[in-house]
């Protein structure tokens, strides 16, 4: 049971001396030693009862959630200080640096809400200079470059569509040319997709279209929205987001009147679209030269994972156990919060998980030193960066690991383990290895904890990226709270004694996983997940968006939680949510905004791409 720490302040009145009294002190200050009452020792008694694990946890989490670290936003001084603290502890424990002699694995990432900065742009058509944000915009996937080249119309720039459709001939060569491209995919006379009906199909993916013309030698791209398009966007892109990917050539979008002037009039542009709709014309050189100049500063953020190795021995030394948790948080609200500009110290999320990993690292190192076992797996203690912006740290690691991923026995993830209430703990990934069916109940039965078990291995935390590489995972989590992703997630809200119980349980799992036979990964649970979606809203949909794949439009689902309105409505993993009613879903942030504006009982009709078809799914929203 989570019992808050209560400190009673005793006034002088309780010992017979009225408050506000001044007395003559002793001749030596060293002789001043008032007697303590039992109530004065509440905090000391609490930690003595909780034990050394709780004390060490509290020491770590106190430093990591200190406002001095400014919320541990990736790439900041506060993040570097947190990294220094973690690596100092790993060194004191006696671990080895994980990354070629260093503790750090640096990587860059960007987020949808962080726009590339366009410091210069210039577009000229037939001697006429166009006006930025009126006639054109530089898109978020543009590179820096300066070209003056002839223009070739490439239709929808689709490599391969339905029924043999293609925007290109086998001999299409765009070397030295600017590709003039229609957005989306072929439409019927009503402006509706010929292939998807409602909204658009996977062939409309703008990254693929851009890559198709780049592969054929294009030196620049002009994008325009089709004049006759019912479901597409109107006007110019107002956010230079990163969802279109990244290129190294100038890429701009023209508004329709400007595109019409380029080809000789809106009627001609409309006819060119109709030809592209039917496939009767592939590429078409235009008698125009356009100058594109763009200088773009990419919005990459810098981050670094931290890793320390406890070397194994004997026959199992080349096999691994990974124990991890992310150490980053939101800083002053750079992502994932409605309180932008306010300090988020992230005590539970996830100073608690980082502290727990540090405590486990010390305990397991001592166990290895004292053990007579001649064969033990190596253990990697891994602290992920940039989790809050989209699981970037774990994605970077699994793409550039220090070991063969097949050598990993299990990945254990600890994210938000500081708020144990009523001894209730969530463990996800319980269906990702066949041995977990018996191992987990057996180990939990030896504790005072009640564990809620869920089979799935995906969810909005770092274990997901390991699971997608066919690695068994276990995710320990003490639940969401009202303070989640708010400035109120502070040290005094935590339950150190409860965290110690969670750490002790994880330690019993580790004891088994470092020397027992390797567990066997199972793949039949990918549609089932556990952890609540990271957001605060009056309703919960129960879907888990992909954090590693951004689409031009729509949200790819990696899983659907059991017992939620999404599951009841029939949404599935690998579905793509295209629209909420008539509102296009451009990413997870847009979905979060709509959920926050909703109420239990609201009925939403989602346009969903499932396989190669777009369908409608009606969902009745429920409270979390």
Describe what you observe in this structure.
By secondary structure, the chain is an alpha/beta fold. It folds into three domains: 295 residues, Zn peptidases (Aminopeptidase); 181 residues, 3-Layer(bba) Sandwich (Glucose Oxidase, domain 1); 78 residues, Pdz3 Domain, CATH 2.30.42.10. Helix content is 24%, strand content 22%. It has 13 helices and 24 strands. The strands form three sheets. Strands 1, 2, 11, 12, 13, 14, 15, 16 and 17 form a nine-stranded mixed β-sheet that branches. It has an eight-stranded mixed β-sheet with strand order 4-3-10-6-7-8-9-5. Strands 18, 19, 20, 21, 22, 23 and 24 form a seven-stranded mixed β-sheet that branches. A hairpin with a 2-residue loop joins strand 21 and strand 22. Helix 3 packs parallel to helix 7. The chain is elongated, with a radius of gyration of 29 Å. The protein starts with 41 loop residues before the first helix and ends with a strand.
What's the short version?
The chain is of the alpha/beta class. The protein contains 13 helices and 24 strands. It has three domains: 295 residues, Aminopeptidase; 181 residues, Glucose Oxidase, domain 1 (3-Layer(bba) Sandwich); 78 residues, PDZ domain (Pdz3 Domain), CATH 2.30.42.
